[in-house]
Amino acid sequence: MSGHRREGFVLATATGIVGITFGVLADAAGLTPPQVIVMSALVFTGASQLAAVSVVASGGSEGAAVGSALLLAARNALYGPVVARLLPASWLPKAASAQFVIDETTAMATIQDNDADAADAFWWTAIWLWTLWNAGSILGVWLGAVIGEPEVWGLDAAFPAAFVALLAPHLRHQPGRVAAFGGAALAVVATPIAPAGVPLLVAVFAVVPGWVVSTRGATEAAT
Predict the structure, then answer these.
(1) DSSP-based three-state secondary structure for 128
(2) What are the Cα distances from residue 16, in Å, to 19, 25, 71, 98, 193?
(3) Residues 6+ apart with CB under 8 A from 181
(4) pLDDT of the chain along its 223 residues, tens only?
(5) Neighbouring C-beta atoms of residue 45, cutoff 10 Å
(6) Which DSSP state fits 30?
(7) Closest by alpha carbon to 43, among 98, 106, 118, 116?
(8) 137, 22 contact by CB (below 8 A)
(9) What residues contact 162, with CB distance under 8 A and at least 6 apart?
């Protein structure tokens, strides 16, 4: 097995373990096994699924759950231009391939030295990732019925931990820090007065000051 295939499989295995946690949390939130199976197969993006389940578990509305999931999934649209050259040329297969354009597959593709290896890494990672994520989710639902409350095992920390993992790389730069701390401040202010799930949506407005700082820095660098 080539190096990038081995790395893709290891990454997919680790993600599958997170899928088990998602299944447990989804079961605790009241989702049925068919709902979890369909969600993992079609949504197929861990952060968005964890966000939706967290909102549901907190008593939030379906709109807030979907809004939170869509907000987090929007970043995947930025990966399209990066991997477009690796996808099939025909529009229908290319559209179907968009299902697999996520953090892990894009990362594995972009670190390769040539397009042939990049395409192979993308698809190898995608196939194993989808398979193991869904298998993990199903196993998690079954385990959820066995272990009871996920808080006893500390699994409730998976959702905030996933957000920290997504946030950490952006804290290296000032615009990212401004957006991160601004979003946290907005969420803290909104939490006591807004329904469950809405503070997460409100926090997105912190992107504006982050964008302003980024634009100002780019202007100063140009001059």
Answers:
(1) helix
(2) 5, 14, 23, 20, 36
(3) 206
(4) 678 888 888 888 888 888 888 888 888 888 899 999 999 999 998 888 888 887 887 787 778 788 878 877 887 888 888 898 888 888 898 888 999 998 889 888 988 889 899 999 999 999 999 999 999 999 988 887 776 665 555 555 655 665 566 566 667 778 778 877 887 787 778 777 766 666 666 776 777 787 777 777 666 666 6
(5) 20
(6) T
(7) 98
(8) yes
(9) 18, 46, 47, 50
User: Which residues are within 8 A (CB) of 185 and not within 5 positions of it... i.e. 6 or more apart?
Assistant: 206
Q: Burial-class residue 56 by CB neighbours within 10 Å (0-12, 13-18, 19+).
A: buried
- The two most distant CA atoms of the chain are separated, in Å, by 63
What's the predicted TM-score (pTM) here?
0.73
Which single residue is written with the structure tokens 């578990």?
A: 57
Query: Residue 59 and residue 62: Cα distance in Å, rounded?
Result: 9
| Structure tokens that stand for 170 in this block | 């952006």
Q: What is the DSSP letter of 60?
A: -
The Cβ of residue 37 has, within 10 Å, a number of other Cβ atoms equal to 16
